[in-house]
Amino acid sequence: MKRFFLLSYVLLVHAFYGAWFSVEGILHCEYSNSMILHRPHSVSITEFGAVGDGVTLNTKAFQNALFYLNSFSDKGGAKLFVPAGQWLTGSFDLISHLTLWLDKGATILGSTSSENWPVVDPLPSYGRGRELPGRRHRSLIYGQNLTDVVITGENGTIDGQGSIWWDWFRNGELNYTRPHLVELMNSTGLIISNLTFLNSPFWNIHPVYCRDVVVKNLIILAPLDSPNTDGVDPDSSTNVCIEDCYIVTGDDLVSIKSGWDEYGISYARPSSKIKINRLTGQTTSSSGIAIGSEMSGGVSDIYIKDLHLLNSSTGIRIKTSPGRGGYVRKVHVSNVKLVNVKKAIRFTGKYGEHPDEDFDPKALPSIEKITFENVYGEDIGVAGLLEGIEGDEFKNICFINVTLRVKKNSKKAPWKCSNVRGYSQWVWPEISCNSFEESIFPEHSSDCFGLSENNLETSSGLSRSQWFLSWQVTEV
């Protein structure tokens, strides 16, 4: 990139984030190499007859290997080693206390025959398949009710060969919802790291009803026009860390979910304590980070930091609708850089898409305490498109230190707001909406999630001109 922040900006950010670490300390993101490398028992997939020629179907080999390794689950766990090669397979189940290791040059290939992806019941918080009524295909790598599972390696690859699924979807030839690459349900203590994911039929990585999840050092790729190939979708899950990932797909890079309309309301399993750090990527159809639209179980305590998005449709988006119920609250977004993004920040209160006709249109979501801090963008189409719900105002939406350089030839207003209320300070272009007050400190700092006494002390002594100088960037 050709732009760098001046030292004054670095010092300012340092002052602003004096209290950050005490906030994020509740999220346990670190893990040791011993959690990945040390398993007292190890076997290679070749010991069970697998052939890595990209043609031989190895589903039975994976199933048999995991059945054998399950006998070591109470003896320190086990490691399934996948060496270099092209290992074609259908869906298989993982076990607890397992490391699935893909060595350098190893690729697990998803079968292009739908019969090798079994059909299973829909998630109880969705009530049906996400794109079709009824059941859904199971993910390529699947597990439920597991503990201590690691999927990692030396940058091995998991390739869903999803193009045939995308064609079936576009042509209306599917009977069931498409499968993910990895789905883990009702599980705890999960690590997915140091891998490349390619061409998922549907969402790539889907931890649902899980807790204590680390997703780190991944490359996730799919064509920009591939349908619904979300990168990582934590769903009704708690204590999730997504860090150091590069994602280019045909949908949201990360989408936080928690169930769909009346089914999500009834299941009542929120997503909370989710940390997203150092994410870089591109999506020309969707968002870098999305919350929703399936958020009926509630979403809270979300920390997004160091997002870098290029040549994309939307930076950060919250999606909901009458009938969703639930809530999105206590979200803190900071240190964002956007380049050539059509809509930097977007709230959509009438997203639509309901599982059936039984949803309650009076079940309105609560959207509040969303803070955007230290956001910079250049070549932006629209700075903010903020649309709440009439009679259900989104409130305590806060912007501090936000500079979004809108394209000179843009004929659209930089900000558009309806049914949204909040506060702004040091925002350029200024938010020209009557529902936003142009000050946060000191009287409204308690209304803005994630701000601390350090923010208050720094900001109370900083004039607008001093702030603007601190944000100048230099060409190199």
UniProtKB/TrEMBL annotation:
Domain of life the protein comes from: Eukaryota
Keywords, ordered alphabetically: Glycosidase, Hydrolase
GO molecular-function term, one example from the UniProt record: polygalacturonase activity
GO biological process, one term: carbohydrate metabolic process
Family: Belongs to the glycosyl hydrolase 28 family.
Protein name: Probable polygalacturonase
Organism listed in the record: Raphanus sativus
